[in-house]
Amino acid sequence: MKDERGILFILSGPSGVGKGTVRKSLFEKDPALEYSISVTTREPREGERNGIDYFFKKREEVQKMIEADELIEYAEYVGNYYGTPKEYVEKTLDEGKDVFLEIEVQGAMKVRENFPEGVFIFLFPPSLEVLKNRIINRGTETEDLVLNRLKEAQKEIDMMDAYDYVVVNDEVEKAVARIQSIVVSEHCKRERVAKQYQKALGSERI
């Protein structure tokens, strides 16, 4: 049914759970999915392209977007804004494409407020011990930072009830397969399919 609107999927979870790894593997298996391109005020890095990696904007431009309520969510990190533009997401969904947003838990809660029709997937670690090891194995953080991240992760795990689905990331391949099942399941939901069939059958009823 080509008139079907796409679905916004929000993939979220605590830092270190493997969101980026799972999302990249998912996109390799399903190239039809669209990644939500963020706006940012930081300078492009070598090889990054506008409209592909990010929408690169001036700080004043993003501030105007915030004031005009043109971002589904936004945050400021190290003096730069990052956000999800409504117009891009809506346009892509209207084209019938599914959009995936990979985001931290706090950002996901903002998306929930502004885009409640989205499908929220919480990526869950097999255990806190596994999560701790993943953060430590990055080798980029001090012991204190690891401890702070784990405390924050516990708080974020407590927010799991705000999500529609929970996927345990024990193995990347299995996690990806579960997310693919969620995508299919959402497209088969009665309320989504019914709208399309009502349009298709409207002129053929006896």
UniProtKB/TrEMBL annotation:
Residue numbers binding ATP: 13-20
The enzyme's E.C. designation: 2.7.4.8
Signal peptide (UniProt feature, chain positions): none
Localization per record: Cytoplasm
Gene3D superfamilies in the record: Guanylate Kinase phosphate binding domain (3.30.63.10), P-loop containing nucleotide triphosphate hydrolases (3.40.50.300)
Domain called Guanylate kinase-like: residue spans: 6-184
Catalytic reaction(s) noted: GMP + ATP = GDP + ADP
Keyword annotations: ATP-binding, Cytoplasm, Kinase, Nucleotide-binding, Transferase
Main location: cytoplasm
Keyword Ligase found: no
Single GO MF annotation: GMP kinase activity
Top-level taxonomic group: Bacteria
Function: Essential for recycling GMP and indirectly, cGMP.
Similarity comment: family membership: Belongs to the guanylate kinase family.
Protein name per its UniProtKB record: Guanylate kinase
Annotated source species: Halalkalibacillus sediminis
Lineage of origin: Bacteria, Bacillati, Bacillota, Bacilli, Bacillales
